[in-house]
């Protein structure tokens, strides 16, 4: 008998991003055949760790931050997923992000379960020393459950190679030996992989190219609007611009800049590095307010910032042919319905942004074998995996007459639950 009760730590009236994920699971369940008897497994995380992270601030005061590591599912392998430092991080969000990792890792068939972590903090309010103390204390608190064969963190919003190096070093101090494979997204000088920094944006570009071919959209000259100009959005912008597309609009947390002839992406990167955001970029011909960004006509729209950006409120305004979800969870299920109704092709997050974790997998394999690959080899393998995953999802979507999101969930959840079934339940 299926038990639909929610875990007691959840507030049923305000499920946030976790509620968004649960609706996605409801949509895939009818397609899971006999494996649907296991579907409750996907509706509750395997393990949740909530930690207090105290640090001494530079002025001598003690500050406390709330941190999380959620291991959603480990049926197919150790947990894998990034760590986010952001002032709006919540448990519901980290649970959803960890569950999307389960689906994503299975979609591209890397041998991992899904996990994610975060700290509710605005890192821009911390000095470099404070950030290092916060990262090290957090690593120590979650060291109970992470490890190279248990759960392997990586970068996400507002974390980077430096943060990964501190995490690796803290874990090495605790364990008394250096296991570079405990985190991925590390500096190249310390067990990192060539191509990891660019991998998520490259995956967005590769799946975007496949989707464009299906829809008859030429990349050369295509008008592209991007929300988020960080690791994912910024690199995707470079790759589309290099392929001849025009980046006509970019929005980040500071503002929105527009140029119908195409923004100069290299100059925009320079401006962001100097000022912290796109606002005030001299190369823009216009600016837009936050909400009207969604109404800008484009051929391809790339949400690459945060979740729940495209909602029932703004989905009706969107005028594009293809949406590439660089961000995790940018589209609510209600917005999904509106966009599908408008025949906009959505390449879902759990497929579109899987390039990052794919090269994280390469990094982990390289760390274990202490044998490092060339960048050409990495990019070629990444491209092949992303193209194959896109084409498998496309076939399922055609065969079952479902969206690419539901098709990706069908492929991935079938893999996860088949592993669960064959492993069995008893210790
Ligand atoms: N870094 C990675 O390898 C991966 C990241 N992702 C997802 O991609 C998204 C972006 O991550 P990263 O690029 O790594 O983060 P990042 O920290 O490098 O950049 C985030 C970008 O989003 C913008 N942003 C933040 N709040 C915003 C708002 N309210 N409105 C508009 N823009 C806003 C920031 O200004 C910045 O440009 C997240 O959803 C993340 O989970 C997914 C897969 C892998
Ligand atoms: O590289 C990784 O391990 C995970 C990246 C991540 O957090 C994501 O895909 O959302």
UniProtKB/TrEMBL annotation:
For the ligand (NAD(+)), the binding residues are 200, 231
What CDD domains does this protein's entry cite?
Answer: NAD_bind_1_Glu_DH (cd01076)
InterPro entries for this protein: Aminoacid_DH-like_N_sf (IPR046346), Glu/Leu/Phe/Val/Trp_DH (IPR006095), Glu/Leu/Phe/Val/Trp_DH_C (IPR006096), Glu/Leu/Phe/Val/Trp_DH_dimer (IPR006097), Glu/Leu/Phe/Val_DH_AS (IPR033524), Glu_DH (IPR014362), NAD(P)-bd_dom_sf (IPR036291), NAD_bind_Glu_DH (IPR033922)
Q: Which UniProt keywords apply?
A: NAD, Nucleotide-binding, Oxidoreductase
Give this protein's Gene Ontology molecular function annotations: glutamate dehydrogenase (NAD+) activity; nucleotide binding
Pfam families given in the database record: ELFV_dehydrog, ELFV_dehydrog_N
Is Isomerase included in the keywords of this UniProt record? no
Q: Which domain of life is it from?
A: Bacteria
- Kindly state a single biological-process term from the GO annotations of this entry: L-glutamate catabolic process
Family, as annotated: Belongs to the Glu/Leu/Phe/Val dehydrogenases family.
Instruction: Write the protein's name.
Output: Glutamate dehydrogenase
Q: Which species does the entry assign this protein to?
A: Pseudoduganella guangdongensis
């Amino acid at each position: 008998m299926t038990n639909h009760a929610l875990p007691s730590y959840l507030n049923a009236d305000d499920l946030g991003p976790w509620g968004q994920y649960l609706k996605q699971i409801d949509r895939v369940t009818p397609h899971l055949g006999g494996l649907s008897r296991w579907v409750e497994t996907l509706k509750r995380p395997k393990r949740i760790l909530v930690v207090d992270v105290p640090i001494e601030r530079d002025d001598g005061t003690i500050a406390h931050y709330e941190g999380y590591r959620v291991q959603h599912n480990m049926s197919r392998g150790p947990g894998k997923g990034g760590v986010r430092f952001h002032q709006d991080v919540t448990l519901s969000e980290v649970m959803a992000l960890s569950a999307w990792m389960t689906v994503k890792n299975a979609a591209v068939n890397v041998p991992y379960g899904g996990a994610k972590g975060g700290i509710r903090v605005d890192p821009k309010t911390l000095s470099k020393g404070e950030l290092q103390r916060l990262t090290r204390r957090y690593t120590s608190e979650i060291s109970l459950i992470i490890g190279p064969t248990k759960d392997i963190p990586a970068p996400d919003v507002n974390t980077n190679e430096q943060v990964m190096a501190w995490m690796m070093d803290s874990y090495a101090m605790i364990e008394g030996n250096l296991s570079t494979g405990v985190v991925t997204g590390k500096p190249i000088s310390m067990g990192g992989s060539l191509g990891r920094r660019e991998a998520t944006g490259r995956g967005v570009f590769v799946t975007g190219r496949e989707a464009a071919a299906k829809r008859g959209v030429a990349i050369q000259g295509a008008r592209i609007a991007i929300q988020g100009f960080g690791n994912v959005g910024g690199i995707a912008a470079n790759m589309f611009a290099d392929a001849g597309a025009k980046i006509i609009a970019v929005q980040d947390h500071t503002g929105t800049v527009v140029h119908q002839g195409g923004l100069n992406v290299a100059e925009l990167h320079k401006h962001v590095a100097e000022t912290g955001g796109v606002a005030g970029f001299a190369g823009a011909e216009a600016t837009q307010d936050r909400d009207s960004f969604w109404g800008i006509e484009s051929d391809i729209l790339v949400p690459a910032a945060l979740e729940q950006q495209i909602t029932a409120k703004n989905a009706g305004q969107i005028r594009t042919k293809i949406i590439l979800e660089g961000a995790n969870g940018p589209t609510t299920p209600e917005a999904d319905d509106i966009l599908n109704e408008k025949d906009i092709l959505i390449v879902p997050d759990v497929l579109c942004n899987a390039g990052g974790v794919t090269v994280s997998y390469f990094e982990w394999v390289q760390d274990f074998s202490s044998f490092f690959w060339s960048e050409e080899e990495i990019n070629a393998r990444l491209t092949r995996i992303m193209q194959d995953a896109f084409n498998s999802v496309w076939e399922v979507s055609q065969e079952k007459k479902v969206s690419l999101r539901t098709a990706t969930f069908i492929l991935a959840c079938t893999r996860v639950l088949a592993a669960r079934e064959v492993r069995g339940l008893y210790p």
